[in-house]
Design a protein that fits this description.
Number of helices: 11
Strand order of the largest sheet: 2-1-3-4
Strand content: 5-15%
Shape: globular
Helix content: 55-70%
Oligomer: single chain
CATH topology of the largest domain: Glutathione S-transferase Yfyf (Class Pi), Chain A, domain 2
Distance between the termini: 14 Å
Structural class: mainly alpha
Length: 253
């Protein structure tokens, strides 16, 4: 049986969601990160969609993080990410959808509003493991690529502000759902916890995350991070990474 191949964007939080699921289940897989900007071409060729992650597994090509985790649960049920109890499972999937829709695109827009105006941060975000030569090339093209990305993701001062408001609202919801407990659903780690923690990771920057934009970050991002750092939800994300992120299951191509 062929080793699964994950096509991913290294710093993307949707992609981190799938990497975490693969690693949590101990599913050995190869990772491929196409060149920045060109990843949309790769994604369209494979799925007729424009986004990553894309997982090739057992002859099937699957796009969308939620669909990928659903497939992983069917084929590799242990350790489970879906609760066995039907009511808890429905609640976990509802929370997964909430953070996918009400947090992920908004925190991305808010962070990109700053990163795309900082050539150094932009270059490292595009290829955090690409090395100095790749970094220099991307940095040289940042003045052109930054505006393209801002148009693609609908970034302007108004949507950036809305992005931070939605991020704060999602953390409010996270803390409310936790109610002081350890996990969002029941008494164990589920897809709801994985999704919330993975999608907050770009602003929390937990030590266990494999791909991060190196410091120094744009000053506005540092300020936003500092505003959230004392919140229970921020600290919960750090704790989920400490407890459950574990070792990478990536293997050489």
């Amino acid at each position: 049986m062929a080793t699964p191949v994950l096509y991913h964007i290294e710093v993307s939080h949707y992609n981190e969601k799938v990497r975490w699921a693969l690693d949590y289940k101990g599913i050995q897989h190869v990772r491929k990160a196409p060149m920045p900007i060109l990843h949309t071409v790769w994604a369209f060729a494979m799925t007729r969609g424009a986004t990553f992650p894309v997982l090739k597994m057992n002859g099937e090509t699957i796009g969308d993080s939620t669909r990928i985790i659903e497939a992983l649960e069917r084929r590799h049920p242990e350790p489970p990410l879906y609760p066995a109890d039907p009511g808890e499972r429905a609640r976990a999937l509802e929370l997964e959808e909430f953070f996918d829709e009400e947090l992920a695109p908004h925190i991305r827009r808010a962070i990109f509003a700053e990163v795309t105006r900082d050539r150094e941060a932009f270059a490292w975000a595009a290829a955090p493991t690409g090395g100095r030569a790749v970094h220099s090339g991307i940095k040289a093209g940042a003045a052109l690529a930054g505006p393209i990305l801002r148009v693609r993701f609908g970034i302007n001062s108004g949507t950036a502000a809305q992005g931070w408001a939605k991020t704060t609202a999602a953390m409010d919801r996270l803390e409310s759902e936790l109610g002081g407990g350890d996990y969002l659903v029941g008494d164990r780690f589920t897809v709801a916890d994985l999704t919330a923690a993975a999608l907050f990771h770009p602003i929390v920057r937990p030590a266990e995350a494999q791909y991060e934009v190196p410091e120094p970050l744009p000053a506005a991002l540092v300020e936003r991070r500092n505003e959230l750092a004392s919140r229970p939800g921020f600290q919960w994300v750090q704790e989920m990474y400490r407890r459950h992120r574990g070792a990478s299951a990536e293997v050489p191509a």
